[in-house]
Design goal:
Structural class: mainly alpha
Mean pLDDT: 88
Distance between the termini: 31 Å
Largest sheet: 2 strands, antiparallel
Number of helices: 16
Order of helices and strands: HHHHHHHHHHHHEHEHHEEH
Strand content: under 5%
Length: 411
């Protein structure tokens, strides 16, 4: 058994090494692959660097939602173009190795890992340059994670395309057919409330049975911010929603405010509080008030104060107003970390969800909480599961297609 595992590992390692070398061998293509990401980041960020006030600042930056959407489009585009011809080039080798009983699953995994590493490098470069240019602070790892999931979706789609066509030119022609629907139905270029409502399955069925629905029936159709049925199959819809909600809810300021509020609610929910909890409650209220109006002379000072607040929230030190006696200045935490355009999108979704006239809370686009099968699920959990699950599903389909193709040729 140990010897067999050694053989399996050797086979996988050989395929992985060969996959890497095939990418590194073409130096010109490698330079383009690595270089296109920072160029696109700089170009997009420069064009979108605009504020209503004239002088650029993140809080009033007009195009942050657009930049986040284009970041995801770039991630999917790079994933598609990097992988759309890989299997076409490898077909003769695949057939030969199939006769030698080389595991097809190892080939698919090695291809995915190789392309994933290049996608990771591209996403890192894009996020570093784009976020720096547009002053998006404290969101590097979150933005990188969502971009990488989107890029891997593009990789799996590209590999699938590569398995279904016979030449690279055909694969290149199919890429726009895959990418353009992502752009159109991703929720940014055309807002869902402005989209043809007959794309929503429930809405279309309601109108099918009632040519002139009354007011009560209109309410049952749900919100205009609900995602049309056909758009649920668009990967960009899931990643863009998660990216926007993350920017609104997981930025350094709002994340700490929400964490403080949840801790306050937890203590208040207790019917009886001991003296220690009562003291903790007062400290948390002071902390929340401080966060809401936190000021400093520089971004570095803001980060320092947020670090102190983290220690208070973790219970490592008590709240002491003296620690923040110099927390005043021309720069506010809200100005640095909260973008108004993003906040407006989230506020609109929250108002739509809380509309008492609708009865049940609908699952609207940009809603931070979703309800599926009677269970309330965070948008971050649900959308991440959808993105990863769809990528794995496409890779499983790719494996099945390749196996069938090779079996037919072998026969």
């Amino acid at each position: 058994m140990p010897f067999r595992w050694h053989d399996e590992w050797t086979q996988f390692r050989t395929l992985l090494r060969r996959s890497f070398l095939s990418k590194l061998r073409n130096r010109a293509n490698l330079v383009i692959t690595i270089g296109v990401s920072p160029v696109l980041a700089l170009l997009i960020a420069t064009i979108l660097r605009y504020s209503d006030s004239g002088k650029y600042d993140f809080a009033s930056a007009y195009h942050i939602p657009t930049f986040l959407f284009l970041s995801l489009i770039v991630a999917m585009f790079l994933g598609l173009t990097n992988s759309a011809d890989d299997i076409i080039r490898d077909r003769p080798v695949l057939q030969r190795e199939r006769n030698l009983n080389v595991r097809l699953s190892y080939y698919v995994i090695s291809k995915t890992l190789t392309l994933g590493i290049f996608a990771l490098i591209q996403c890192i470069l894009f996020v570093l340059i784009g976020n720096y240019a547009l002053q998006i602070r404290g969101m590097f790892w979150i933005d990188l994670g969502i971009m990488l999931m989107t890029a891997m979706g593009g990789v799996s789609l590209g590999l699938l395309i590569s398995s279904l066509v016979a030449d690279p030119k055909t694969a290149a022609n199919i890429v726009p057919l895959v990418l353009i629907p992502q752009i159109i139905m991703g929720g940014a270029l055309i807002k869902y409330e402005d989209m043809n409502r007959n794309l929503a399955l429930v809405y279309a069925l309601t109108h099918w049975f009632s040519e002139h629905p009354n007011i009560e029936q209109e309410k049952k159709m749900g919100s205009k911010l609900e995602v049309p049925f056909v758009c649920q199959f668009i990967a960009m819809r899931w990643s863009y929603e998660e990216m926007i909600v993350a920017q609104a809810k997981l930025n350094p300021l709002t994340r700490r405010q929400d964490l403080t509020q949840r801790e306050i609610d937890r203590i208040v929910a207790k019917h009886r509080q001991d003296p220690g909890e009562s003291k903790r409650l007062e400290e948390l209220k002071e902390t929340l008030a401080l966060l809401s109006g936190l000021e400093a002379n520089s971004v570095g000072d803001l980060d320092h104060y947020l670090g102190l607040i983290d220690q208070i929230l973790d219970g490592k030190r008590p709240f002491d107003r003296a620690l923040f006696k110099n927390a005043a200045g021309p720069i506010t935490a809200e100005q640095i970390y909260v973008n108004q355009k993003v906040s407006d999108l989230i506020s609109n979704a929250e108002m739509e969800q809380s509309d008492y006239r609708r009865g049940d809370r609908p699952n609207v686009f940009f809603g931070a909480q979703k309800r599926h099968f009677g269970i309330k699920i965070s948008v971050f959990v649900f959308n991440t599961v959808v993105l990863i699950g769809s990528t794995l599903g496409l890779l499983a389909l790719l494996h099945w297609i390749l196996r069938r193709q090779l079996e037919v040729r072998k026969g």
